[in-house]
Please model this.
Amino acid sequence: MEPQAMPSTIVVLGTGGTIAGTAASPDDVVGYRAGQIGIDTLLAGVSLPSGTLVEAEQVAQIDSKDMTHAIWHTLAQRVAHHLARPEVAGIVVTHGTDTLEETAWFLQRVLQPEKPVVLTGAMRPATAREADGPQNLSDAITVAREPGLSGVFAVLAGVIHHACDVRKANPLRLDDAFDSCDAGPLGVMAGGRLRWLRVRADAAQSAVPVQVALSRPVAEWPRVEIITSHAGATGALVLALCADGVDGIVVAATGNGSVNRELQQALVAAQTQGLAVLCSPRSGFGRAHPSAIDRLPMADGLTPAKTRVELMLRLLERDGA
Ligand code: SIN
Model:
């Protein structure tokens, strides 16, 4: 039997908003008219992820303050129609930012889609000198292509929010216009790719529980300590902990996971003696993006304290029951 091709078509449904807005001057980012430019024209100015087929459909052309239940009804029907097509990977809806959160929740509650439905918009009109719409639209298409993703999302300013959490939080600013309140955003776009900040529900379900932690007495659990990289750091703590029989060290690293030179030398030397090492940014807010020059492994989006638990569990798993 022929292997089934991955669906690669994204359907972009236009509804208007500032992303499709025009002003008399490229410097005017306040006195413009929303919902003026057609979705085909908007897409013409967007760079698409390679291998993506895009279809466009104009569902409405409004300022989203004027969103109606009738448009919602039509929009939900069009989304459902396209989602049912096997070649469609996901849907993008371009939308005014003023009521985007309402439409997102409506679509989530009405459709509970099993493929991604991604709403996006812009804070500056399409005619602005530095319009944010094209990048937002490109990012939304990338997210809509994400395999295995299901539900309704909003993507703006390089940030991915779930329909459940997203809200408009600032009337003018570009980067802070949307947030996910205490839940926090789901992910960010980095280097044209989607990076998850929160564990996705489906990933959480497929994670294998570390059952050995239940069967092994806690006195036998690996010992993992945390040390911090800072100005004037040395390898003294690494030597002391190794002498004390520690199994792993978590490093609360500076910046994007960098480690003081002397401290790193001691850690690399200890690794060759069997010490397990895992780094995590000490800033505690935001996620590190490891690079090829990093010599020490980086935990994926965990605080140093949670990284300590993670390393301990990894060592328990490695050593078995
Ligand atoms: C609208 O919501 O349609 C206008 C405002 C915006 O998109 O930012």
In short: The chain is about 30% helix and 20% strand. The domain at 8-206 is CATH 3.40.50.1170 (Rossmann fold). The radius of gyration is 24 Å. The longest strand covers residues 53-62.
